[in-house]
């Protein structure tokens, strides 16, 4: 843990994939199977692949926590530690009441991207596809885990937290990631950003959580999202 | 239908690549699409019949199930793989001109975008449906498409983009291709892409998954 002049703190974690407790049904749902019911041989392949992920996933997560007063809100924009973000109306609404924030990222690591590619290169498509889907779920699960740390840390200071909000979702332009990463050390967790705002490794997520004494954690995030044709949205609403 | 052709179609549909393939369990140890295809050719069944009446039938069966929501991407992929293994035995027939690909599918992820998997899946499913595939890879500048198109028989282009920040590159690529090769159909896909966006940038169609494109091209009778 490091502290700096404006009173923000940086925290980094390395996670054990096993601790994320990724269930086969979650992977099957991510691979497109309604209700998470994959038939054989895929169910078997998912279980087998889950057993092998630990050797390829280097799951890292971390955040920079800004103290109360660092965040100010406007209708469709917010300002964090002097940097302006045009986040759009939905994000603006979601952040309502926040005065502090955590800027976070999580990644499954570069070796994992290579592992996926290796399967496609040797024409092992199904396994490659499943490994890809599992990597996405690990990244999500790591972000969920990190989110829980942020929420708990905030609660200890009497603050509540918003949902986790990511550039590229809900009308917040993905290019604003550059400003978010500006708050984080160079190559934070090994992540780099391309000019087109892609994070490398691919299985990475970034975002912000608003904190304040009067914020509300929104309900189900899919309800806020505008990607109508998303296969995940369908899957989740069916449950 | 000829028994062996039926067995090839089933092997493709169920993703039984070859004898060694452990899946599906009820076909374990039996011949797969590869061996059956080789045997059918040895028996003197014309390669065009093996292709049209067996292999393509198998892919179509799994494709139909996909469209009805009864099969999913892994099913399409496992079938495409079996199909590709069988096609290896048809190579001499392709080379002699006895059978032909349905056309050439030139595919790539647009400049600035490094997403690979979705595009590879589309490429595999197209290959499994009888297309010759030229995969230009990821982060492909428009000029690379212009180099790849000339000389390809019945060429169709597929572009993939996974981030809104790379959709302008998709637009630029479509317009560049259309300026030089107005006759070449260009199709677009990828998570943030929509049919409206495709229409606006001058693409010939948008499909949320490879099966949609396969079906569309089937209808167009390319
Ligand atoms: C899983 C997922 C993730 C995973 C993995 C991402 C990855 N790159 O591997 C994780 C959790 C890590 C993630 C992270 C992010 N994601 Co994300 N993610 C998704 C999700 C849910 C599925 C994408 C996926 O992997 N699908 C499976 C693969 C196999 O499918 P595919 O690549 O889309 O290809 C298929 C089709 O699109 C189609 N297709 C593709 N190309 C072509 C071409 C042709 C010609 C045709 C016919 C068809 C076709 O066929 C393929 C097979 O079916 C989508 C939403 C969605 N429903 O699609 C958002 C989505 C792609 N993500 C999005 C965003 C914003 C992000 C982040 C920027 C968020 C953040 N700030 O952290 C990061 C960026 C990551 C990075 N490396 O830069 C946005 C992108 C749009 C935008 N605004 O730019 C999407 C669309 C969600 C949304 N609601 O807007 N993400």
Describe this structure in words.
The complex is a heterodimer of chains A (239) and B (222). Chain A has 239 residues and is an alpha+beta fold. Chain A contains eight helices and eleven strands. Chain A has helices spanning 17-20, 24-30, 42-52, 89-94, 110-121, 125-156, 177-182, 231-238; strands spanning 2-3, 9-15, 59-66, 71-73, 77-80, 83-86, 100-107, 160-165, 192-193, 199-200, 204-212. A six-stranded antiparallel beta sheet of chain A has the order 1-2-3-7-11-8. In chain A, a hairpin with a 5-residue loop joins β9 (192-193) and β10. In chain A, α2 (24-30) packs across α6 and α3 (42-52) packs across α6. The longest helix of chain A has 32 residues, at 125-156. Chain A is globular and about 55 Å long. By secondary structure, chain B is of the alpha/beta class. Chain B has two domains: 3-96, Methyltransferase, Methionine Synthase (B12-binding Domains), Chain A, domain 1 (Orthogonal Bundle); 104-219, 3-Layer(aba) Sandwich (Rossmann fold), CATH 3.40.50.280. In chain B, 51% of the residues lie in helices and 10% in strands. In chain B, strands 2-1-3-4-5 form a five-stranded parallel beta sheet, sandwiched between helices. In chain B, α6 links the parallel β1 (104-109) and β2 (132-135). The longest helix of chain B has 21 residues, at 47-67. The interface between A and B is medium-sized, with 32 and 32 residues. The structure holds cobalamin. Cobalamin (B12) sits between chains B (73, 115, 117-119, 121-122, 158-160, 162-164, 187-192, 207, 209-210, 213) and A (136, 139-140, 166-169, 174, 177, 198-199, 202-207, 225, 227, 230-232).
């Amino acid at each position: 843990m490091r502290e700096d002049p404006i009173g923000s703190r940086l925290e980094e974690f390395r996670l054990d994939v096993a601790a994320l407790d990724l269930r086969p049904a979650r992977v099957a749902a991510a691979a497109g199977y309604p209700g998470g019911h994959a038939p054989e041989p895929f169910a078997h392949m998912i279980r087998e692949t889950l057993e092998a992920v630990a050797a390829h996933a280097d799951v890292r997560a971390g955040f920079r926590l800004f103290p109360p007063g660092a965040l100010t809100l406007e209708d469709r924009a917010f300002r964090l530690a002097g940097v302006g973000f045009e986040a759009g109306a939905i994000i603006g609404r979601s952040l309502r009441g926040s005065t502090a924030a955590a800027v976070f990222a999580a990644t499954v690591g570069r070796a994992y991207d290579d592992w996926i590619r290796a399967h496609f290169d040797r024409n092992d498509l199904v396994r490659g596809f499943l490994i890809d889907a599992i990597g996405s779920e690990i990244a999500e699960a790591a972000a969920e885990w990190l989110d829980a740390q942020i929420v708990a840390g905030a609660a200890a200071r009497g603050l509540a937290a918003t949902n986790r909000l990511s550039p590229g979702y809900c009308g917040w332009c993905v290019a604003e990631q550059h400003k978010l990463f500006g708050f984080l050390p160079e190559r934070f967790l090994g992540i780099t950003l391309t000019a087109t705002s892609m994070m490398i490794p691919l299985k990475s997520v970034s975002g912000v959580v608003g904190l304040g004494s009067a914020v509300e954690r929104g309900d189900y995030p899919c309800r806020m999202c505008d990607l109508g044709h998303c296969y995940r949205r369908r899957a989740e609403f069916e449950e | 239908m000829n028994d062996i052709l039926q067995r090839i179609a089933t092997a493709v549909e169920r993703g039984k690549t070859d004898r060694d393939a452990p899946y599906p369990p009820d076909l374990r140890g039996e011949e797969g699409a590869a061996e059956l295809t080789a045997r059918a050719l040895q028996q003197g069944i014309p390669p065009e019949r093996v292709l049209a009446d067996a292999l393509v039938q198998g892919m179509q069966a799994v494709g139909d199930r996909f469209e009805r929501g009864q099969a999913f991407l892994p099913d399409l992929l496992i079938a495409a793989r079996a199909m590709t293994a069988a096609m290896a035995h048809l190579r001499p027939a392709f080379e002699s001109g006895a059978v032909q690909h349905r056309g050439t599918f030139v595919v790539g992820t647009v400049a600035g975008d490094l997403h690979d998997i979705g595009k590879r899946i589309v490429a595999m499913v197209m290959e499994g449906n009888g297309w010759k595939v030229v995969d230009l890879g990821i982060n492909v500048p428009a000029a690379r498409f212009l180099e790849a198109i000339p000389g390809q028989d019945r060429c169709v282009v597929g572009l993939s983009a996974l981030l809104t920040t790379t959709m302008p590159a998709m637009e630029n690529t479509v317009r560049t291709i259309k300026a030089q090769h107005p006759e070449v159909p260009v199709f677009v896909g990828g998570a943030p892409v929509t049919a409206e966006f495709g229409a606006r940038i001058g693409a010939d169609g948008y499909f949320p998954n490879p099966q949609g494109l396969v079906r569309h091209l089937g209808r167009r009778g390319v």
